[in-house]
Every structure is written in C-alpha cells, then in structure tokens.
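Inputs:
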Amino acid sequence: MPELRQDLVTERWVIIATERARRPTEAGCEPVKSEDSNCPFCAGHEAQTPPEIWVARSSGGPNQPGWKVRVVANRFPALRVEGQIDREGDGIYDRMNGIGAHEVIIETPDHKTELEDQPVEGIATVMTACKERMLDLLRDERLRYILMFKNVGRQAGASLSHPHGQIIATPITPSRVKRKLEGAREYYRRKERCVFHDILRQEQRDGRRTVYENGGFLSFCPYAARFPFELCILPKRQAADYHAITGEEINQLADALKITLKKLALALNRPQYNLILHTAPARRARRRDYWDTLDQDFRWHIEILPRLTEPAGFEWGTGFYINPTPPEESAQYLRELTI
Amino acid sequence: MPELRQDLVTERWVIIATERARRPTEAGCEPVKSEDSNCPFCAGHEAQTPPEIWVARSSGGPNQPGWKVRVVANRFPALRVEGQIDREGDGIYDRMNGIGAHEVIIETPDHKTELEDQPVEGIATVMTACKERMLDLLRDERLRYILMFKNVGRQAGASLSHPHGQIIATPITPSRVKRKLEGAREYYRRKERCVFHDILRQEQRDGRRTVYENGGFLSFCPYAARFPFELCILPKRQAADYHAITGEEINQLADALKITLKKLALALNRPQYNLILHTAPARRARRRDYWDTLDQDFRWHIEILPRLTEPAGFEWGTGFYINPTPPEESAQYLRELTI
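Outputs:
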C-alpha cells in the first residue's frame, strides 16, 4: 500500500509509492518505447491492461478491439482505491495510507495518432471521457481532488509513447491547488470580480499574448509564463468545475486544444510537454463552508507546459522561474503560424 | 534589462530574462561541454570571465592563475545590479525591472575535481566564499533574498561542467521561501519550539533516515522526501542566517558535505543533482517587524536533490510528489556505504 507523508515545514504531501519502482521501465531512466509491437495501449492488446472502466466504441464487446477511447486503471498506481483512510502520527510527523485512484485515458487505438492529429470529434470524446470519469469518482466521498494530466515525451515523465492522459484522485487537496484557490478567493474578496474573468478580458483587449480564440475559449501565453511557449486555455463561461462542461463547450474546447497543440507541435517540432487540467476540489459536506465561494471566484482551466528548459537549483529553491522567452514573443510566433 | 512579472493568482514571480536566450549553449538543448580546452572557468582562462569579485589564492595577481576559489559575475545574468528598482502596473498585472545579482563561485581551477573530491579545506574555502559574498550583498538594501545553489549535470540545469556554484540575489522574497518561513513560524507559535530543532531530535532518536553526523551537522533523508536519495544537511546550532556560520562550523559543514556527496556519487554513479542553501531573507528596516521571530523559528539548511526522476504533470499540477523510494531505504544504503 502506498503511503502519504506530510512535510512538517511546508505542509506539502508526498506519495511514497514503492510499488511504482517495480515498473518495467523505471521512469526517467530508460527511453520511451516507440515501437508499437508490444504496446499495451494498442488495439488488439486489450488483455495487457486492467479491464476498461469507461469506453467509447463503434463495435466489439468489452475489452475487445473496436473502441475509440478507453479508460483503465493504472497497472502501477501511485494510489489505491481499496481500504479506508487511516491517518496517524509517526514521531513528530504525519502520514496516511495511500487511498485514491489512478486511471489511464487511452486516447486512441492507434499508436501514432497524437491528440492534436485526431479530428475534433475524437478530441471531444477524450475530453468527455475525462468529464465522465470525474463525475463517477466524485461519488467517492474519500476523494478530495481529481487531477487530469498528460505527459508527452520521456523528459515530461511519460513511460509509454502511445497517446494517453491520466487521472489521479487524491484524499487531500494538494497544497499548490489550495494556494491557487486562496489566491483567487483573495482577489475576489478585494475586487468582487473573478480573477480569471479579469485575465480573460485583459488578454482579449491586449491581444499580444493571444494564440487562438473561438466562441467558448481563449488560448494564450500567460503574462507571468514560467517557460517558453507556456500556454493557458481558459473557458469564457464562469465555471469552477470541469465536470459542469456542456456538450457544446466540449466541442469548442476540442477545437481550441487541436489548434493550440497543432501550432505548438509545428513551432517546436513536437516538443515534450505536460498538460494539466485545473478544476475545483470536490466539495462535500466537510469542507463546503471553506470553499463555498469557489463557484464565483475560481474557474477551471488548462495549462500546457512545454519542457524545453529544465528547472534547476534556483527554481527548486525559490519557486521563482527564469524564462528566457517573453510570452508576447511565444504567442506572436504561434498566432502567426499557419496550420 | 530583465523584467520581473507576478502571476495574478498564485503571486509567484518569474524573471523574463531575454538576454539569457543569447547564451552560447542554450540550457537544456545542448550537451554539457566536458572538454576543458575551452572552459572559461579553468586556470589560465581568467580573461574569459568578468573580473573576480572575491578570490582565495596562493599566488599570482588579480585575474591571474594561482587561485583556489574564484567568484565572478555571471556573463549571462538573470538579474542585473545596475539601476533603481522600478515597480509598475501593466494592465491588471504587476511587474518590476530585474534588479539583483547573479554570481558564479568557481570552486576549483581544475576542470575535473568535483566538490566532494576536494580536501575538506578546499570545500571549506568554497563555503567561505559563499558566506563572504552573502555578507557583501547584504549591504545592498535593494536585495531581499540571497540564494546559493549548485546545478550538477545537464538535466539539473548546468550549462558548463566545470565545478561551480551560483548565487542569485533577488529584489523580492520568493513565494516558496515565504511559505517555508511561514510554516516554521506557525509551528513555533503553536509549540514554542523550532521545527528544525524538533526534526533534528526526531532524526537523531529514530536513526533510520540518518546518513552521517558530526559535531556540528546531521545529514539525513527527509521524512517526506520528494525524490529518491533526497538529502538534507542541518546544523545543530540554531541560526537563521548562513552568513552567521563560524569558522569551526564551516569545517564541520565541509566534512558533512564531502562525506554526503561522496556517498551519493558512489551510490548512484555521480548522479545529476541540485544543491540548495536555504537561508533567512535579508532583514532590513522595512520588513523587520514581519520577520522578527526568524532567529528563533527558522534555521538555515542545505537540500540536495538528485535528478533521477522527472517531475511530470501530476507534480506540476499539484506540488504533490510521487517518490518510488522510501527515504529509510535511501538512507540505509548511503549510511552503510564505505567510502
């Protein structure tokens, strides 16, 4: 069973997940496998993964070929669903058992079709899978936060090259998420305006950091970007929870993702990157009072972080980033690129 | 002139340092040069660096061979010393000009002698250089925080392989530093004990995470380690400021660093790593009231972060780390290693 431990000074939690050390390819030590002959995520290899939890398919029976998007449990999970949450002291420290969920969204049966290469409907199905899994996981009262993310490339943490996303649900709200929520709440308290709405308006008015815009979403390089070509995709409609997205918005999001990721792939020759979907934490009875302003002050959004530079001692020590490329330059380059 | 920009939601600052993009080897894109023929940090190549700011030498004149440790300005600085601090709004955002200092501590004239390969006296001279530079930079009232760090290996952010450390002084206290200070203050407020002293006692009593101990320092793997073989070197005497270290303590620290880094190099075949010296922020008139409890609640310390795994989407999204190796296992391995 994995274990969660809390740092006494920063209150940051870590997952001590010894089972992951037994993964066949230790992350970051061996190259990503690109051959598809042995890929457990390819069509025809369904038996190599745990059974599907969610699926969109055009033909075939459960765990058979004919699927378009498939969600399965991670075979080497960082957290496990079984058991009750058990918190305890350990000397002066705090720990709890590693209850949670860790799932894989296999975006396509085809090993070589990156997310941005799919038609808009295909991307919409992937983002629907994410919504449906969140709605299901939210029924589990032990889970406080659900993160959907995507690692592309070995340096970005991927151990398999077949296009896939991941969902991790944690029994605590992570410290970085809390700070984002608290920052948004503090801004609202001062101004009575949602900080994400102010950012949307500012970026639309200014335009220098805009990459793409459609009826539902704005794709732009953030003002205080940490990395060259860092991107944010922000919905125009106020909503704290990704799982409240409508069918029409999913299509608009799929369009924004396709164009943004396609431009990024062209500009930087398919860079390694992380994609992160920031949504509000689960609000169940216990903490509802604490987060009761979220619906007005927080808005879900997507961050895309290309891994062109490595965070080094300065970044690790301070949380302060050195970015050699102004976001205005990254955005102009992407905006003007014809795809 | 570099520019500092603040993220509106998280209050995190970033440095937009366009001048660094002009570095001859763009960090993270080209391999670290290991040939010493062209290395600007090697003895005999003093003219290739800016003039020395601090030096320990056995012979020769300024900027001539005969030195043991040499501190020079970074040729591609993230922040610049010249000018007055100028803060301004930019639409709804905040920015300031990039005032600060960025120096390089060249640890040895010999390209191949890693820090841990130096005799204890050599390491003590490097750590003295760091103290002396901090004392000098603290006289500049514009500077709020001074970070000493060391990047070893390309993946850890190093662009030159010649052994060196760096010092960056920033005009604001970085958000991650503030959180560490606030965590320590909150702990003291509750318990009337320094959290670092409690950690020292707990680790000495428990012993499972200890790597090495001498009269002045404890070297151990932290309870909530984010990475396999993550290490902390903690002084036994309460002191918030590294620059208050005594001559005897510098020798003890040099011994602890030599043994800890030597064990790490042997255990993992010279891994890439970041070393970070966490010290208290500069306390000048303006903020003295805010940080007036630091002397009792915060203690300077060193973190060593081997770069064996890559932070990925989950870590970027949550600040929550997945560590496949329990610190007890890392520590036992290092403790029992004969060097």
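Remarks. The radius of gyration of chain A is 20 Å. The mean pLDDT of chain A is 91.
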